[in-house]
Design goal:
By secondary structure, this protein is mostly helical.
């Protein structure tokens, strides 16, 4: 068979090769041509020479080129004509070939025939081409000569197979094969194929490669199948020819089945091939993929391709050694370059495939997405996702979604990511922009695990990539810091902190970018400012590298500028920055010295010591005239001491200065009772030890407060007085915090030096208001409030200081101080109730407290004035005063706390039985000093035996003290607020950068110095004491119920004690819920902590067995907690218990039985009669009832049966009952709560049917019957609920009916109508019954639409258009279903009159109707497109098929 072949670029390339050899010969041939032309011409009388000469070719001898006198095509035509017209044709051909064979027996002649001919000089100008073919190739272009010449060549070729290459570099076998390439015609392709394959089988390996790779350029398309089959067989026999064979197979047109076999063969050998062969093998596999088998092939490929096996021997060891030396990987050397080139080529092949083949890229991502096990994920998977992310813009969102899911499930962890950067560094470094873009998008996520992964991308990009990528990474992180999103800012600053430690020299090169963040300090939180100054200070003052003086100078300039600012906010920024700088300077200097010198007391140099102390003195001098600035300075310094270990010399200087100043400012002798013109008599109160009249000390609080208020009035202030330092009682708590931390640091936690401050009295006055409260002036009441506030904050700091002391005496005193705190809070509530405009003194002095003041004061103040003073004690504010908006802050922050608890003031009012104004101190928590997490170790205390000593330090008596319910509730309330703030994720709402961040973090400054993991660990350690308290409270309510014959709130109950215990119960459950709902438990590094938490709960039941799995511990913990449901005292506690069990259920793999238990508990709580006062007419209890009912319906086995029970049994019990009556089955169901039950049932019903699959005609008959039965139940429930609006026709109920009624009809259209399409014939009666019931419901919805329009209720009418459209679609869909089932006659359309909910006709089309009614009719006619009103085609259409005689419809169907 003869096939046409076109000349292509490959032919040009081959010709250029011939030209190259020709060029090497030309100088010699031209040189000799002029001198010995006659001697070089081959003279012979053979037919071969005569015919060639006649046709235009002159043969030369030796190394001279054959000369072509005419054009190549002309030569071929002339020779062809001569041969055909020769008298002895076809014998002449044999003679010609015989002459050729004789001529080429000489190797020089043979080589000349294989090399390109030389054109004569006079012919070159007229040539159309710039190259000429060899004589053999010209002869092969003549059809009658081609078979014989091919036979001659293949007979001649074996002579040269095993010869070495000539000195001129010409390989005769390669030259012979090149003659066969790109021939215009192949006369006998099958014969040529056979000869070549035979030649390949005997040729040496180096020539085999060349012969095989030449096949696509030699053979025609018709031979591709045969060659492919033979090559595939050869591939199995000789693996050394894998690369050329696969390269050729990729270029041939082969049967897909053959390609699939070869591909599978390569897949099986993938683990044993060489790295050099891998690019070609992968290229073949990817090019042989089709759309149908892409996912299967890629899945197998990624499973069997172990790149780590290939790459590690090449460069990993060198990478690690050079990484240690330089911090980044850079390679040089020939040994590594060869392996690198293969890897580069491999990934280039993969990149090309995923870039240009959409099916391959999608299949690869799906293959990674469907990996079943966490352990099966490889570094190559992560690298491939990044590669595809960078090459295909269309798949970026999809890849991000896959990445997020993998991160959440723990498949992609830090170790895997680090390995990916180590192993695939050379590939990933070119994708740096895409990696940074991916990291940026991940940091926008609200999920903490995803944010962490994004931060790791930044970290490793900086660690492994070059300077340009490092700069881009720093720039992106700075952008995140300036974005305004709190999570992004925190994460970016944390990454910058890590990078400073990781590579300080590289970070110093990018310090200018980090310094730019200083322009955005205004809207950063204090903790973020601390991190920023820590980063800059480390860059500036680290002793590891010199040459950072310019950074130091810039830092000093910024801090001095901020400290000297007249704007108070900037002064506070300067304080934070200066203290952070001082800590870095002192700590780094100490660490450097201690590591370089031998043992002995090492310290800062004099120069370093001077720098630190001068900076601290500068801060002190800039803040001493401002109590708030001084207090912040003390707090910041205390935080520094708590986190860092300062050099001994600095610590000693600080300790002496603080102790002396504190004693001079705040402590006086007990015998020196101050005398002065004070508004109240001064007394020493709250003394824990009996001192003689001239012995002991006291805190001078009342005189200092009076002096401060006196100084504010401005009277009797002399110039000398103004020169003295202003001593403000505001600084007392923070100054003491600094003092005790300094003493603890100096004496390894021992506070004996200052333990006198724990039990010393305070100079106060009688705080109990008694009868004089109403007679006090506003100023006197404000003074008393401030005095109590300062005393409370002092006691709080005292408890913070001494809670860690282990001696029983100290612990007893701490418990006494806690009792004092509770008592003072009770007194403060009374004062605040009659002093509504009072603004407490500040207790926290960070930026957020001051920053949000101007933004919230006006609006909230107006709101408070409008509402007035309520029973919950909402406070009012003074206008115009900047600090007055702290009132607003405390109110806003308090609103975030759980307001469902009955506050203690209200409980006491009930207990005392008289009218008394009180407030909720939860709204004021921002004005109290923060309790440290260590304080909650007091929860471990059981009975404490306190020894009372006499004056001679002998034991006089012993006293047993323990934590009482009021103090327990105080601690639990504070702990629950901390858990909510740190472990409960904030609402995912982005706050613009130039807007205020709000006040949700006010009062938690010290808490935010710790990570969420640390807080969670602290809570887990407190689980045991909290379980003890929970069990004690449980026993209390169990005994109380038994004493009152099954009624918890019986007549003999103590109201105050009952509510205190109930509040403690709820707070413990709330803390448990906050802990186990923490999203950090899904991170692998926190699994051990979760395991420990469940172990603690499991041990409460019985001694656990060793090595229990997490699931076993979880199950036992679940049953331990659910046992408390018997003693739940309040509805809020019941809800928290259920939420706690649900959170644990989420972490379980076997959840069916636990889900049923939750449903059972929820039902019990709904069927329980709760104590009076639990179901107030307020939004919070309603929300809780809605949540509890939703939990019940969500977890019950059959939602439809539960709805039918409530709507069909319980609700009718209310219809004929009194207004305040409740259902006997569900006591929580009353007329007031009916709308909540109705809303939840409608929502759950719609959610349930929407999740039901529509089914297909291919499903079994049994499945059709089950689905039809299910829809019958759903429609029956819907009918029951809809008909309730005839009795309960309040506006909220009608609104719920319109909203969820439309959604139910939509679900019916999408999920049920396809089922009816193929169920109508076999279940005609059931379908008709279903539609008839549903038609009655839609008719009632029509009546509801008319009712909404008649009453012109905008909230209701906004749902009417969509509902009417949906009902109209239902008409059309039912008609289509009947037509599909050959029952069109069963459908008819009638007119339905507009009626209201009671069935009365609405007259809307008479001649005297209003304009509004006319417009309504016009609109409805447009919707229905019929002569009837909009309601006409609604329900009636679906009526039609049902109200028509059923027998008729049966006949039509049959």
């Amino acid at each position: 068979m003869i096939s046409q072949r076109r000349l292509s670029k490959s032919e040009n390339k081959e010709s250029l090769t011939e030209d190259a050899s020709d060029a090497r010969k030309q100088p010699l041939s031209r040189k000799t041509k002029k001198s010995r032309v006659q001697n070089e011409v081959e003279e012979n009388d053979s037919v071969f020479l005569k015919l060639l000469k006649t046709s235009g070719i002159i043969l030369k001898t030796k190394e001279s080129q054959n000369q072509l006198a005419v054009d190549q095509i002309v030569f071929q035509k002339k020779l062809f004509q001569i041969l055909r017209k020769h008298p002895s044709y076809p014998k002449i051909i044999e003679e010609f070939i015989s002459g050729l064979e004789s001529y080429i027996e000489d190797q020089d002649n043979f080589r000349n025939c294989l090399l390109s001919c030389e054109r004569l000089q006079d012919e070159e100008a007229s040539m159309g081409t710039s190259y000429s073919k060899s004589l053999i190739k010209l002869l092969l272009g003549i059809d009658i000569l081609q078979p014989a010449i091919i036979k001659t060549l293949f007979e001649k070729l074996p002579e040269f197979l095993f010869e070495t290459v000539n000195s001129d570099g010409i390989s005769v076998p390669r030259l012979i094969i090149s003659q066969l390439k790109w021939l215009d015609r192949i006369v006998d392709g099958r014969d040529l194929t056979t000869k070549i394959m035979q030649l390949i089988s005997i040729a040496p390996e180096n020539l085999q490669h060349d012969f095989i790779t030449s096949l696509p350029e030699i053979l025609g398309d018709s031979q591709h199948a045969d060659v492919g089959k033979e090559l595939s067989d050869l591939l199995k026999e000789n693996t050394s020819l894998t690369v050329p064979i696969l390269d050729v197979l990729s270029s041939l047109r082969l049967d897909p089945k053959l390609l699939s076999k070869v591909r599978q063969l390569m897949m099986d050998k993938l683990s044993s091939v060489k790295l050099d062969d891998l690019p070609v093998i992968i290229k073949f596999i990817l090019h042989s993929v089709t759309a149908t088998d892409a996912l299967e092939v890629i899945s197998e490929l990624r499973e069997k391709l172990d790149l780590q096996h290939f790459i590690l021997p090449v460069w990993l060891h060198a990478s690690q050694s050079k990484l240690k030396n330089k911090g980044r990987i850079s390679f040089s050397g020939n040994q590594e370059n060869s392996g690198q080139d293969c890897v580069f080529l491999l990934f280039d092949v993969i990149k090309s495939a995923v870039r240009y083949e959409k099916t391959i890229s999608e299949a690869w991502v799906k293959a990674i997405e469907h990996i079943p096990s966490v352990s099966e994920h490889k570094t190559f998977d992560l690298a491939m996702l990044i590669i595809i992310y960078s090459t295909n813009a269309q798949t970026k969102k999809y890849i991000e979604r896959v990445l997020r899911n993998k991160i959440r499930s723990g498949c992609f962890e830090e170790e895997l990511l680090q390995s990916a950067f180590y192993i695939h560094y050379f590939v990933l470094k070119d994708l740096c922009p895409s990696i940074l873009s991916l990291a940026q998008n991940l940091l926008h996520s609200p999920d903490q695990s995803i944010i962490l992964f994004g931060s790791l991308l930044y970290k490793y990009a900086f660690k492994f990539f070059d300077t340009y990528c490092q700069q881009e990474a720093i720039g992106a992180l700075v952008t995140h810091v300036c974005s305004g999103n709190e999570a992004e800012v925190d994460t970016a600053l944390d990454v910058l902190l890590e990078l400073v430690v990781l590579d300080l020299s590289a970070m110093r090169l990018n310090a200018v970018f980090v310094k730019g963040i200083l322009d955005y300090l205004d809207k950063m939180s204090p903790q973020q400012i601390r991190k920023l100054f820590c980063i800059l200070s480390t860059l500036a003052f680290s002793k590891q590298h010199e040459g950072s003086n310019h950074i130091q100078d810039d830092m000093h300039l910024v801090v001095r500028k901020q400290l000297s600012s007249t704007i108070f906010k900037y002064k506070l920024i300067g304080i934070i920055g200066a203290v952070t700088m001082a800590g870095i300077m002192a700590a780094d200097g100490y660490a450097c010295r201690s590591s370089s010198l031998t043992q002995g007391k090492t310290d800062l140099s004099n120069e370093q010591y001077t720098q630190v102390t001068s900076l601290l003195q500068l801060v002190h001098s800039c803040t001493e005239q401002s109590p708030q600035a001084s207090a912040l300075y003390y707090d910041e310094f205390a935080n520094l001491l708590q986190k860092r270990k300062l050099a001994p010399k600095v610590l000693e200087w600080v300790g002496q200065t603080i102790l002396n100043d504190f004693q001079d400012s705040f402590v006086v002798d007990l015998c020196a009772v101050p005398n002065g013109d004070y508004p109240f008599p001064v007394k020493a109160l709250y003394e824990l030890e009996e001192y003689s009249s001239c012995d002991g000390i006291a805190v001078n609080l009342l005189p200092l407060l009076f002096s401060q208020d006196f100084a504010k009035d401005g009277s009797r202030m002399t110039s000398q007085d103004s020169d003295h330092k202003l001593v403000s009682p505001l600084c007392l708590p923070p100054y003491f915090r600094l003092l005790r931390l300094c003493v603890a640091r100096q004496h390894n936690g021992n506070l004996e030096e200052i333990d006198g401050l724990l039990d010393c009295p305070i100079f106060l006055t009688d705080l109990e208001p008694g009868e004089r409260l109403e007679s006090m002036s506003v100023k006197e009441r404000s003074f008393m409030c401030s005095l109590i506030y300062l005393t409370l904050n002092w006691f709080r700091e005292v408890v913070n200081a001494f809670c860690g002391q282990t001696s029983p005496e100290m612990m007893g005193k701490v418990l006494a101080r806690l009792k004092h705190i509770v008592e003072l809070q009770r007194i403060l509530e009374k004062y605040l109730a009659v002093t509504p405009d009072y603004v407490p003194p500040l207790a926290t002095f960070d930026l957020e407290t001051v920053d949000v003041i101007p933004h919230t004061s006006t609006a909230v103040s107006a709101k408070i004035r409008k509402q007035g003073m309520t029973g919950r004690g909402k406070k009012r504010k003074r206008g115009g005063n900047k600090t007055s908006s702290h009132d607003t802050l405390s109110k806003e922050d308090g609103s975030e706390c759980d307001s469902t608890l009955p506050d203690r003031g209200q409980l006491e009012k009930d207990f005392k039985g008289k009218e008394e104004k009180t407030v909720a101190l939860q709204n004021y928590h921002a004005f109290f000093r923060e309790l440290d997490m260590e304080v909650f170790n007091v929860l471990h205390c059981g009975l404490v035996t306190k020894v009372i000593l006499d004056s001679e330090m002998h034991t006089e008596a012993t006293e047993v003290v323990q934590l009482q319910p009021p103090e327990l509730l105080f601690l639990l309330e504070d702990l629950s607020q901390k858990v909510e703030n740190m472990l409960t994720p904030p609402i995912g709402r982005r706050i613009p950068f130039l807007k205020s961040k709000g006040s949700q973090n006010i009062g938690f400054s010290h808490l935010h110095q710790r990570s969420a993991h640390e807080i969670a660990r602290c809570i887990v350690q407190l689980l045991t004491p909290m379980c003890n308290h929970l069990e004690n409270i449980h026993n209390y309510f169990q005994c109380l119920t038994a004493e009152n014959h099954g009624i918890a709130d019986g007549p003999g109950m103590q109201v105050q004690e009952y509510h205190l215990m109930s509040s403690c119960y709820q707070r413990i459950l709330q803390i448990f819920h906050g802990l186990f709902a923490w999203s950090g438990f899904f991170q692998p590094e926190n699994q051990n902590l979760l395991h420990l938490a469940f172990e603690t709960l499991t041990n409460r039941l019985n001694q656990r067995e060793p090595d229990q799995s997490l699931e076993e511990l979880l199950t036992q913990s679940f049953y331990y907690l659910q046992n408390f449901h018997h003693s739940i005292p309040s509805f809020q506690s019941a809800l928290y218990l259920l939420r706690l069990l649900m959170v644990i259920l989420e972490k379980s793999t076997a959840s069916a039985q636990k889900k049923e238990k939750i449903a059972s508990l929820a039902r019990q709580f709904l069927c329980r009669v709760w104590p009076s006062g639990e179901r107030e007419k307020s939004s919070t209890p309603n929300d809780q009832l809605q949540a509890l009912l939703g939990i019940y319906l969500e977890h019950t086995d059959s939602v439809l049966k539960a709805i039918e029970e409530i709507a069909g049994v319980c609700v009718p019990e209310l219809i004929n009952s009194s207004k305040d009556a409740s259902s006997s089955t569900f006591p929580t169901l009353t007329r007031h709560t009916f709308v909540i039950f109705f809303r939840v049932m409608m929502a759950e019903l719609e959610k349930t049917v929407r999740g039901l699959q529509a089914g297909t005609a291919a499903d079994s008959q049994k499945i059709h019957e089950e689905k039809l039965l299910y829809w019958n139940m759903a429609v029956r429930d819907f009918s029951i609920l809809i008909n309730l609006i005839k009795v309960f026709d309040s506006r909220p109920v009608l609104h719920v009916c319109l909203k969820y009624g439309r959604l139910f009809v939509e679900a019916f259209l999408k999920q049920c109508m396809p089922l009816l399409d193929f169920s109508f014939r076999k279940h005609r009666e059931d379908v008709l019954s279903l539609l008839e019931t549903f038609q009655l419901n839609t008719r009632l919805l029509q009546h509801l639409c008319g009712h909404s329009k008649i009453h012109q209720d905008m909230k209701l009418t906004e749902h009417v258009p969509l509902l009417k459209k949906t009902l109209e679609l239902l008409v059309c869909r039912v008609k289509a279903m009947l037509i599909l089932n050959n029952c069109r006659e069963a459908f008819w359309l009638g007119n339905l009159k507009n009626r209201d909910l009671q069935g009365e006709e609405i007259i809307s089309q008479n001649s005297q109707a209003s304009t509004a009614d006319e417009s309504e009719d016009d609109t409805s006619s447009l919707v229905s497109k019929s002569k009837a009103m909009e309601v006409d085609e609604e329900g009636e259409a679906s009526d039609g098929e049902k109200e028509q005689d059923s027998d008729e419809s049966d006949d039509k169907t049959d």
